[in-house]
Structure formats: structure tokens, C-alpha cells
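Whiteboard transcription, Tuesday session. T.W. wrote the C-alpha cells on the left side:
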């Protein structure tokens, strides 16, 4: 049982690391390209849209991960999720 627990913890840690990496978006070059034009990143726009302090349940974070042999498409090129917007 301890062996299974250790293996599961290792897999969960790997998943968390991958999700964290994917959440950064298209990488430093893409981030620099957007911010140099004064644009907000997609997750920044979502944060502004949601009610203050409202959680956001992001879905499909790993869509497009390792889609191509030499590169990933973080989140399949889009962000989907559920959050609260009161208006």
C-alpha cells in the first residue's frame, strides 16, 4: 500500500508540475510579444472579468499538451472554465 501511495504521489506531483507549466501559456516569447503591445494575457483578462475573490475552475488545461512532436499547444490554444460573474 505504501508503494502505491508513493507512486500516486509521484504521479500527482508530475501532474501539478505539468499543469503549472501549461498555465504559463505560450512561453516567454509569446508573453513578451503580448505585454510589449500593452495587452493583458488571457488569464489576466479572466481575473478582471470574474467577481473579486471568486474561484475559477479551469477545464481542459492539458488539451493540446504534446499535441505535436516538437511542441505543445497549451490548453489547446484556449482557456475554458467556470467562474462567477455577477455583472
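and on the right, the sequence the group agreed on:
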Amino acid at each position: 500500500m505504501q508503494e502505491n501511495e508513493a507512486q500516486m504521489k509521484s504521479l500527482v506531483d508530475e501532474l501539478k508540475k505539468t499543469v503549472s507549466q501549461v498555465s504559463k501559456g505560450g512561453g516567454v516569447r509569446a508573453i513578451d510579444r503580448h505585454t510589449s503591445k500593452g495587452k493583458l494575457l488571457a488569464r489576466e483578462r479572466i481575473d478582471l472579468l470574474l467577481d473579486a475573490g471568486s474561484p475559477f475552475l479551469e477545464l481542459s488545461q492539458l488539451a493540446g499538451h504534446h499535441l505535436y512532436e516538437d511542441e505543445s499547444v497549451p490548453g489547446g490554444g484556449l482557456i475554458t472554465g467556470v467562474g462567477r460573474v455577477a455583472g
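Someone added at the bottom: Residues 2-83 form one domain.
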